[in-house]
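thought: user wants a sequence for this fold. calling inverse folding tool.
action: design(structure=
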């Protein structure tokens, strides 16, 4: 179990009159401004023996602040052994290869057996806490039916650093997708805002009003026979179902997508029984996060990881190559 940590910070002359939360965040990089705000609200920061309760107060040169970070509380999700691949791991982060079917966060309908449950078990003893809770910091997500690489943080500082890279678009993510047809032109950028589908709130859609900006760069890697293509997609933003929605909007939905893929029947004229059976059994989108790259939170080293296409994805592609 982790222990409480105490930081003692003295305000230097050149920091006089800074806001308290900004000064403390600069002085203690391991703590984010949001985390510091929570510590102030929990009466864990003091000056001269008195509790500080105003995040916007101006500090004065020579003042000494005591920050107490309590031991991380146990997370509400329970640790469970959940199968997933570990590509890389150190004291700051873990890169995992998520299989199809694994849900990332506990939610209605999936209270346990999630990636978070699995990470809590796998990383037991090495999590120093995210926001004061012993849990992994999920930096980005993959849909249940999407496989591939994800990175999760083990401490506040790593989580903050990786999340900043995600926000500034310096955390690189590339996907491979099997789509119906062959997009023309064979490479380009889809720039279309995404929001809730007004006709079905459970789905996302390209919308003219009320959505969030979304950009996906795509490139056809090679045709898969005459009916499909293997496409690489690079995310510039990370909206819910972004690649799936954008490729469907382009007129080339991802094969197997149960929400945005459309029925394959009209595309299967003259298809072999093997192809029909493979498509019937392929009950999720053919989308795989095959590459992730980022700067390491501690060393600043640029790390990049790749993941091979899952077996069933490759088998389906090989069948379509002959169609």
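)
observation: tool returned 323 residues.
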């Amino acid at each position: 179990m982790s222990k409480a940590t105490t930081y003692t910070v003295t305000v230097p002359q050149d920091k006089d009159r800074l806001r308290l939360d900004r000064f403390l965040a600069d002085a203690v990089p391991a703590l984010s401004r949001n985390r510091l705000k929570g510590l102030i609200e929990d009466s864990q920061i003091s000056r001269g023996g008195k509790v500080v309760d105003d995040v916007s107060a101006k500090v004065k040169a020579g003042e000494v602040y005591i920050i107490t970070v309590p031991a991380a509380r146990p997370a509400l999700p329970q640790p469970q052994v959940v199968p997933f691949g570990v590509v890389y791991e150190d004291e700051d982060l873990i890169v995992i290869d998520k299989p199809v079917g694994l849900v990332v966060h506990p939610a209605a309908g999936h209270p346990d057996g999630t990636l978070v449950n699995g990470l809590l078990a796998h990383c037991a003893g090495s999590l120093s806490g995210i926001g004061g809770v012993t849990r992994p910091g999920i930096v980005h997500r993959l849909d249940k039916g999407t496989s591939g690489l994800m990175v999760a943080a083990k401490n506040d500082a790593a989580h903050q650093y990786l999340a900043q890279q995600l926000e500034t678009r310096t955390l690189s993510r590339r996907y491979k997708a099997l789509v119906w047809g062959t997009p023309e032109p064979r490479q380009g950028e889809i720039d279309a805002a995404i929001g809730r589908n007004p006709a079905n709130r459970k789905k996302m859609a390209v919308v003219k009003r009320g959505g969030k900006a979304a950009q996906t760069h795509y490139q056809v890697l090679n045709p898969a026979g005459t009916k499909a293509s293997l496409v690489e997609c690079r995310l510039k933003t990370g909206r819910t179902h972004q690649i799936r929605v954008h490729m469907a909007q382009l007129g080339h939905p991802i094969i197997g997508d149960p929400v945005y893929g459309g029925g394959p029947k009209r595309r299967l004229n003259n298809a072999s029984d093997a192809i029909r059976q493979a498509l019937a059994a392929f009950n999720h989108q053919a989308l795989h996060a095959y590459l992730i790259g980022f700067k390491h939170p501690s060393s600043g080293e640029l790390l990049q990881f790749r993941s091979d296409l899952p077996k069933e994805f490759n088998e389906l592609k090989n069948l379509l190559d002959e169609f």
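thought: summarizing for user.
answer: Here is the designed sequence. Residues 74-167 form a domain with the Pseudouridine synthase fold (CATH 3.30.2350.10).
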